[in-house]
Amino acid sequence: MRNRYLDVLRFLAIVRVVVYHVTGWATLTLVFPAMSVMFALAGSLMAASLTRSGPAAVGRRLRRLLPSLWVLAAVFVPAMLLSGLPVSPRVLLWLFPIADPPANDWGALALSIIWYLRDYLWFVLASPVAFWLFRRAPLPTLLAPYLLLVAIEAGIYPAPPVLREFGLYFGAWMLGFAHHAGMLRRLSGRVLYPVALTLAVGGGAWIVGHPGPRGYDLNDNHLGNALWSAAFILIVLGRAPSGVAWLSRSQLADRAVTVVNRRALTVYLWHMPFVVALTPLVDVVGWSHQDPLGLAIRVLLVFALVGLVTLAVGWVEDVAARRRPELIPGGRRRPAEAADPDGAEPGARSGAEPRARVLDPAVVPAPRSPGTPAAVDVNAG
Asked: What predicted TM-score, i.e. pTM, was given to this entire model?
């Protein structure tokens, strides 16, 4: 059985990421720290795959991640090469982005979301060792990324930016491990709520005391982001309901959640090019990013364009997951599909008891890189 509550969380996270990149509203990062939630969900699913398949889970995860990236690269890399991007061996990073692949000026904005795939790729590769350590020493392994981040932010360890991101987001990934193991669910309220409150107060105080260029935007504050997001994850995963019965009562809502989960990677990869392209165009016709109506029109246009490209290339996610390709997911499923563990999307039975059979879902996404026009923020999610 799929855990539809996790599907709903992922749906909300992806929608929030798209809306944030269109509007630039910093408050959205505090209300729903989507990036950390998505890394936590991905970590839980990776732990489920490792429990079932061992290190072979790495190859399966990469198989599901990379084809959608290659489709994006097949469109944008030739365009960048034709518009001035130098030909070099680094272009091959678009096939396997263990480092930031090269881009020209406009490509650096439109494709800035690749940072997430870079981090996700490293987390997948590190997971077999991290999972082995986690099963032997859960709490020290869980705390290690956060302690690394504290050391970096306090100036004790002058690490490169990639390690700062590791401390921030691999911490959320490890909370996903704890969710899969049932650790978060087993915490009593007398422990979970005070810990979450302490983390939230500490993170909030750090954010208020260290505002970034956009004010109280989590994406400008790694330590505040880590603490605030950890508190959020503890609550939404540690007190996750067993199901969401209300979802099945609305065919439209149920189908929307299914479509976004099955096409999460496509939505993530393609939304930023449309955000960047539309920003100057809508300004020309007077739809200012400071005007609520203009922002609403931008959001609708981006979702409409993402919907069209999802219809065109979203089926690649089905092929990568070894599912029967569908134009619009969520129709009547065959029994074989319902029982196919490798075809499950992100949000299957992660968080079940450690020895339970867990469906093996997919990966998802959301963004990071400097500077963009108006409300566009490619440096966050």
From this structure: 0.86
